[in-house]
């Protein structure tokens, strides 16, 4: 038995079973051995418990999945000890199973198992089924488990991630975003007992930005964390480097005093004074526990990563102490943190964009002021240079590279000159005192930070760290915005120009009564001797390494002038090779400024533009093939994930326009490709989608609007942003363009800058979208359920990795068009195929749904998946799609199938009335379960050939094909309950009470019979074997029961004329409470009782016995049936189970046929009259026994006419389902009537046969027949003196038969002759021997028998005339006379028709 | 117990010898009947009107005396007398059982 499986079986064999209540295995009952065999051979996770202590067994799967470290300790121990920690949960369930025999089913029950050395949160779906011993008593339970911990926890985590991504608002501030994220994190107190979100501050350190499950300010949740503090609660430094850290949350880790187990020193009996500081430093004492009873013991601290830059901050995630920190848990926390980080990024970028937009407006105004102020003297010549240069550039597009390069030089320097001119203009204004300064009170820190932010992209692009640390100032500083911008922009531009690695930083702080702004870099620095000359106009440091040789040397001089105008100072300190710091100090207040230049807040306008500075700075940075510099925080990977520059496709049929656009976009750093019309563009995009398309509206073949529509309709290209260009102005046109799905729309003519701005903006938007798409696909991919999207035709166009995991089909072969490759094969498994086809048609229909269907894994194995789907609209294309998920429910499916198969087999077995019924029913169940062609059972009993039973085809052994016979015979050499499959079926061997049973399931052509099927078959075969044993026992019990019941009812010493029958119900093979009785009463009368107790089995039989005896005794005391029943009412009221018994009680005077009777709710007696009519004894009726004790019962009387037949019965004879009782009574009446000429005993047999339902009686039946008068039976000595009394009796009897006198006389003569012969001839030598006479009348026949023990003489009329005369007389008187001589006597049988 | 039979000898008004039987005649008492008949020499009228039963043993006695007896029988006995053939060789007169 233990050999069924190596691993656990070996250890089971080592258990000292003698020490358990089960004793040594060789003495185990068959049922236990069967159960253990099934358990061990199953691949499903199972354990079982058996016997008084519920001794524990399990299989390898259970060991692996659930038992963990308790193996092998648990084997053979009481289950309550093995699962002590969850006994409160499972104990009552097991008790229920043992008490009721009914299985339990629990889905995803939370249990804290201690299988890995700690209480572990785990979820189990399991059923407990009863296990029965050989006698059918429940003595144990089998638990089939599937652990669902991963699914339950996975779903919980998914819910959190889904919620995190469900923020409906597009833009939020950082605070709003964090508040939202914290609300979502806080809803999962199981995986995240508490969380802390810290954001790094520009000046170092971190501040607490969000908490869940803990209050801000808790010792473990300080509001700020200082930078570089080694003893900080959380390791901010490591996190700033982007590392994740696991922090143990030992409440005593920093608080040794209270737990110090040092030996007591008498000198220090006083408790050591608690150091308040040490308590403060015990940040992990009193931590909240989240959704658990105990606080967490560990936290995982993960950075809020920022691509290519230092993290934004970090998230402290306290960990569920009941789960290990495995890859999935860590992944979950990282995904959650990733979402928070993305939220911070988008909030910040949104804020920056907001600021930039405002600034651009401001700059625009400043530009206007600037240009209106500039004098013709400067403007005109520059314009006259730059204008023609631009002209030339356009006209010389086709010229050689050198010419164009030279033109670029001219142009660049023209621009530079323009900037220089403007700076000079400022100087001239300052010097002329015409600088129209307008000082307004501002938060200098904010203004400075804003200015710094203008340089962020350039700094980032240069690969430098940009640290802006400008906390709000508590007092405004009066500045001229324009001037201040120039100050900051010059300083920043300068820093960028001379810094190649490291960082650029801007800070704004209050120092006493000054606002101090510093711009610091880690650039090349300035030699000490050069520092004093830094602010000199036109002073340049020779041979300094810089990003550009451009530079007038005038910027810092202007800065110094402008700072001076604000009453401030600027200083520089620098170390060569280490960097430079400029420090500007501005006084607070306005006293130092000219009163007329003071304005109120918000009225001053900037005087300059940042563009020249920033653009110039950007030009210093490389834009070559090697790609953009690393570290661009705003940079997103393009579609293919590489870091290549963004690609733009230009579609325009006008070559000039196309080239212009190409130049423009290439100039802005894009990689540009072109298409001559919409169709070409569509092909190009489909072949290799660019990051953005710029398309003209009017184009041949396919216009711009159609192009947009085509792109949007294809999921692969739907997301590519499109900017349309059109000559058509007006709002309608743009609405048309946008409705077509264009992302933006420009009307020609357009400014180059505007186009670039729109391109860039749309590119950014697209990247933002891509970010969302990436988030979405990360989310979808992280789903544990398989996810798919179907188009309207049912083609699967998108899947996630779980889909691939479950089905084996990956995204590389998308789309999967129907019929999908995972459908079961229509040829080999048409039913499964149809199931999927049905589900599929539901999928394409409207609405939502869910199905559980069979599918085929790519490697061919069968899976069951539960699919849920919903209709959705693709937001990009507007098309209807179906979005669905499914999960692998194979194990569940088979578990349910197993349960239901076992249940229906058990039902079938329990309903079987005999061993052969049990087997036949079980084969039918098996056949329908597998939709098998046939199921065959060969029982190798002790006959020459096995006994065959089949479901689906009827065969005998020799009718079987030879290979099938061989397969069945071969099974005998196999171990029990081990399935053996071949090409077209599977066989298994099991025990049958009469020998070994080889079972064969013929599946038909090459149908798959999976491993699960095999497990199921062995389970079912085990159950069947047990069921057969029980059926066999039932067979034996049935025989015993019938014998018993008949014994109770007695080998009836029936009075003459009576016949009785008792037949127990065919099912459930139990005796019942029906009875009949006849009692000889004083005065020759006969008491007749037929009754029916409620219920079946021993109890009913016992009740019946008591009532029968009581009724007998009562009848002997009182011959009134009504009074007997009334007394019986009183008696029955005191007998449990006797209530509602129905009884027909009668007293018969056999002489007269007078019958008095009373019925206690019993079906009426039937009286078949000699004239062919039928009457019912339906008088004297009242309620069943003990229903109304004390009530008077009625009594009726009738005369049973001669040769009438009375039938009393119990309802089992006539009661049929779906048929009125009277129809049964009519049928019974007819049966009696038809048998009125048959002797009553034969009639009883006829009636029982005729009324039996097809499947046998399903209730027990008692039947009593009486024909009046009772036959006359006499025995008398063979002496002539006996003739007269015999004659007298016979005459009297014949009188009862109501016959004409002459007939009576004839009969008397015939009988007399027969008797005389018997006396005279039969017993001539032995007078005094016995002669028997019997006379029996039916409706139209009278039969007379006279038997003696002697030998008659042959009639010899010659010799003895008068003797022959006797026989002649007999023959003359009767119609039929048969004289049968025999060695032991002679019988004369005479009959006469009497009607 | 012997079958009840009374045999009463008498003389008919016409002077003929009369034997009146009452009861039943079977094997057990045919000897008495035979004795009675033999003790009455010459023709005799045997009145069987009150005889309810007559079997073949009785018939045998009657056959033996058929040539000198005249029978008076009730209808119940008629079939026996007819069937046995006694009616053919002996004179049988219908008697009324009830009129007796």
Automatic annotation (TrEMBL), chain B:
Q: Which InterPro entries match?
A: MlaB-like_STAS, STAS_dom, STAS_dom_sf
Which ranges form a coiled coil?
none
Instruction: Please report the stretch or stretches of sequence annotated as the STAS domain.
Output: 14-62
Instruction: Return the Pfam families for the record.
Output: STAS_2
Recorded hits in Gene3D superfamilies, A to Z, give:
STAS domain
What SUPFAM superfamilies does this protein's entry cite? SpoIIaa-like (SSF52091)
Report the protein name in the record. STAS domain-containing protein
């Amino acid at each position: 038995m233990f050999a069924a499986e190596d691993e656990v079986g070996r250890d089971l064999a080592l258990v000292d079973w003698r020490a358990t209540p089960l004793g040594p295995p060789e003495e185990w009952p068959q049922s236990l051995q069967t159960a253990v065999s099934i358990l061990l051979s199953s691949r499903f996770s199972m354990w079982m418990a058996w016997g008084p202590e519920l001794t524990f067994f399990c299989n390898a799967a259970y060991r692996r999945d659930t038992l963990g470290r308790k193996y092998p300790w648990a084997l053979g121990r009481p289950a309550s000890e093995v699962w002590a920690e969850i006994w409160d949960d499972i104990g009552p369930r097991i008790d229920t199973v043992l008490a009721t025999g009914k299985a339990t089913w629990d889905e995803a029950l939370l249990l804290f198992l201690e299988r890995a050395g700690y209480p572990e949160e785990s979820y189990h779906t399991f059923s407990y089924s009863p296990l029965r011993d050989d006698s059918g008593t429940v003595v144990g339970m089998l638990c089939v488990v599937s652990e669902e911990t991963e699914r339950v926890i996975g779903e919980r985590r998914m819910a959190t991630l889904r919620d995190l991504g469900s923020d409906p608002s597009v833009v939020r501030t950082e605070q709003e975003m964090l508040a939202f994220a914290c609300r979502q994190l806080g809803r999962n107190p199981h995986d995240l007992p508490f969380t802390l979100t810290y954001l790094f501050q520009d000046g170092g350190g971190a501040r607490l930005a969000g908490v869940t499950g803990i209050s801000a300010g808790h010792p473990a949740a300080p509001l700020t964390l200082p930078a570089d503090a080694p003893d900080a609660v959380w390791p901010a430094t490591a996190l700033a480097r982007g590392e994740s850290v696991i922090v143990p949350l030992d409440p005593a880790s920093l608080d040794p005093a209270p737990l110090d187990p040092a030996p007591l020193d008498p000198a220090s009996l006083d408790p050591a004074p608690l150091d308040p500081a040490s308590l403060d430093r015990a940040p992990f004492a009193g931590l909240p526990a989240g959704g658990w009873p105990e606080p967490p013991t560990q936290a995982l601290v993960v950075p809020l990563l920022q691509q290519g830059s230092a993290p934004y901050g970090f998230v402290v995630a306290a960990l569920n102490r009941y789960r290990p920190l495995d890859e999935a848990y860590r992944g979950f926390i990282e995904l959650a943190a990733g979402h928070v980080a993305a939220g911070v990024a988008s909030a910040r970028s949104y804020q920056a964009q907001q600021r930039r937009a405002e600034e651009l407006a401001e700059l625009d105004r400043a530009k206007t002021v600037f240009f209106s102020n500039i004098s013709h003297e400067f403007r005109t010549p520059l314009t006259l240079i730059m204008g023609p240069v631009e002209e030339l550039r356009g006209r010389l597009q086709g010229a050689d590279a050198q010419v164009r390069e030279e033109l670029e030089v001219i142009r660049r320097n023209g621009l530079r000159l323009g900037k220089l001119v403007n700076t000079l203009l400022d100087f001239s204004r300052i010097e002329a005192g015409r600088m129209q300064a307008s000082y307004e009170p501002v938060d200098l820190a904010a203004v400075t930070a804003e200015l710094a932010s203008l340089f962020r992209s350039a700094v980032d692009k240069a690969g430098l760290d940009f640290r802006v640390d400008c906390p709000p100032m508590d007092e405004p500083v009066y500045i001229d915005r324009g001037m201040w911008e120039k100050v900051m922009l010059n300083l920043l531009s300068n820093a960028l120009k001379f810094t190649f690695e490291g960082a650029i930083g801007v800070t704004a702080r209050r120092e006493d009564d000054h606002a101090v702004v510093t711009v610091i870099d880690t650039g090349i620095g300035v030699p000490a001797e050069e520092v004093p000359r830094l602010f000199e106009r036109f002073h340049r440091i020779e041979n300094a390494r810089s990003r550009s040789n451009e530079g007038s040397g005038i910027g810092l001089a202007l800065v110094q002038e402008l700072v001076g105008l604000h009453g401030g100072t600027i200083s520089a300190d620098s170390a060569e090779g280490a960097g430079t710091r400029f420090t500007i100090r501005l006084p607070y207040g306005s006293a130092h400024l000219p009163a007329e230049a003071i304005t109120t807040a918000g009225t001053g306008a900037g005087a300059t533009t940042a563009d020249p500075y920033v653009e110039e700075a950007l030009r210093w940075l490389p834009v070559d093939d090697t790609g953009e510099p690393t570290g661009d925080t705003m940079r997103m990977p393009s579609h293919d994930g590489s870091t290549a520059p963004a690609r733009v496709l230009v579609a325009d049929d006008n070559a000039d326009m196309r080239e212009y656009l190409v130049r423009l976009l290439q100039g802005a750093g894009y990689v540009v490709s072109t298409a001559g019309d919409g169709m070409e563009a569509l092909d190009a995009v489909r072949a290799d989608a660019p990051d953005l398309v710029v398309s003209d509206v009017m184009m041949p073949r396919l216009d711009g609007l159609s192009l947009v529509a085509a792109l949007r309709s294809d999921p692969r290209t739907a997301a590519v942003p499109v900017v349309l260009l059109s000559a058509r102005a007006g709002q309608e046109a743009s609405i048309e363009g946008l409705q077509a799905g264009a992302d933006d729309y420009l009307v020609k003519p357009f400014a180059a800058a505007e186009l670039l701005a729109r391109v860039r903006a749309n590119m950014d938007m697209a990247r933002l979208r891509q970010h969302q798409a990436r988030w979405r696909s990360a989310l979808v991919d992280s789903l544990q359920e398989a996810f798919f999207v179907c188009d309207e035709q049912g083609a699967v166009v998108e899947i996630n990795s779980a889909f691939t995991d479950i089905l084996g089909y990956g995204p590389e072969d998308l789309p999967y068009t129907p019929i999908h490759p995972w459908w079961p094969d229509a040829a080999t498994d048409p039913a499964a195929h149809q199931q999927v086809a049905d589900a599929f048609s539901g999928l394409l229909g409207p609405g939502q749904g869910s199905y559980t269907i069979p599918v085929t894994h790519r490697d061919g194995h069968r899976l069951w998946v539960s699919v849920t789907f919903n209709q959705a609209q693709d937001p990009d294309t507007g098309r209807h799609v179906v979005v669905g998920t499914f999960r692998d429910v194979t194990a569940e499916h088979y578990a349910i199938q197993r349960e239901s198969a076992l249940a229906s087999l058990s039902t079938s077995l329990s309903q079987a009335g005999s061993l052969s019924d049990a087997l036949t029913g079980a084969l039918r169940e098996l056949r329908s379960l597998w939709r098998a062609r046939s199921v065959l059972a060969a029982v190798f009993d002790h006959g020459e050939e096995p006994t065959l039973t089949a479901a689906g085809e009827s065969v005998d052994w020799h009718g079987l094909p030879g290979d099938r016979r061989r397969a069945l015979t071969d099974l005998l050499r196999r171990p029990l309950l081990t399935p053996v499959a071949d090409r077209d079926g599977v066989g298994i061997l099991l025990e049958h009470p009469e020998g070994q049973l080889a079972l064969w399931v013929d599946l038909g052509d090459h149908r798959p019979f999976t491993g699960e099927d095999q497990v199921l078959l062995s389970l079912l075969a085990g159950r069947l074997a047990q069921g057969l044993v029980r059926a066999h026992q039932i067979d034996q019990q049935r025989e015993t029961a019938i014998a018993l019941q008949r014994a109770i009812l007695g080998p009836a010493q029936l009075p003459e004329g009576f016949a009785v029958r008792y037949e127990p119900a065919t099912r459930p093979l139990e005796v019942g409470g029906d009875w009949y009785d006849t009692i000889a009463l004083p005065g020759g009368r006969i008491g007749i009782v037929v009754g029916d107790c409620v219920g079946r089995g021993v109890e009913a039989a016992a009740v019946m016995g008591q009532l029968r005896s009581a009724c007998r005794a009562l009848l002997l005391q009182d011959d009134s049936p009504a009074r007997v029943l009334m007394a019986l009412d009183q008696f029955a009221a005191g007998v449990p189970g006797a209530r509602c018994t129905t009884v027909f009680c009668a007293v018969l005077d056999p002489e007269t046929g007078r019958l008095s009777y009373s019925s206690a709710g019993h079906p009426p007696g039937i009286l078949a009259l000699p004239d062919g009519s039928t009457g019912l004894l339906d008088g004297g009726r009242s309620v069943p026994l003990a229903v109304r004790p004390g009530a008077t019962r009625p009594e009726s009387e009738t005369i049973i006419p001669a040769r009438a037949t009375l039938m009393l019965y119990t309802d089992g004879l006539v009661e049929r389902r779906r048929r009125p009782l009277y129809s049964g009574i009519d049928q019974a009446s007819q049966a009696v009537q038809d048998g009125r000429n048959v002797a009553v005993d034969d009639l009883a047999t006829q009636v029982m046969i005729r009324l039996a339902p097809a499947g046998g009686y399903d209730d027990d039946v008692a039947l009593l027949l009486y024909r009046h008068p009772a036959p006359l039976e006499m025995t008398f000595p063979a002496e002539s003196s006996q003739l007269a009394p015999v004659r007298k009796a016979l005459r009297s009897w014949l009188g009862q038969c109501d016959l004409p006198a002459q007939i009576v006389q004839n009969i008397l003569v015939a009988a007399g002759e027969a008797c005389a012969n018997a006396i005279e001839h039969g017993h001539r030598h032995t007078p005094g021997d016995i002669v028997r006479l019997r006379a029996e009348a039916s409706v139209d026949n009278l039969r007379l028998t006279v038997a003696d023990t002697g030998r008659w003489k042959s009639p010899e009329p010659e010799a003895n005339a008068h003797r022959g005369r006797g026989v002649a007389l007999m023959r003359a008187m009767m119609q039929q006379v048969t004289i049968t001589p025999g060695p032991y006597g002679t019988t004369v049988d005479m009959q006469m028709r009497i009607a | 117990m012997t079958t009840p039979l009374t045999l009463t000898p008498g003389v008919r008004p016409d002077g003929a010898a009369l034997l009146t039987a009452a009861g039943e005649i079977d094997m057990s008492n045919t000897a008495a009947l035979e004795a009675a008949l033999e003790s009455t020499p010459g023709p005799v009228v045997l009145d069987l009107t009150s005889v309810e039963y007559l079997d073949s043993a009785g018939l045998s006695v009657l056959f033996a005396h058929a040539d000198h007896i005249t029978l008076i029988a009730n209808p119940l006995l008629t079939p026996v007398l007819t069937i046995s053939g006694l009616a053919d060789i002996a004179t049988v007169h219908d008697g009324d059982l009830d009129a007796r």
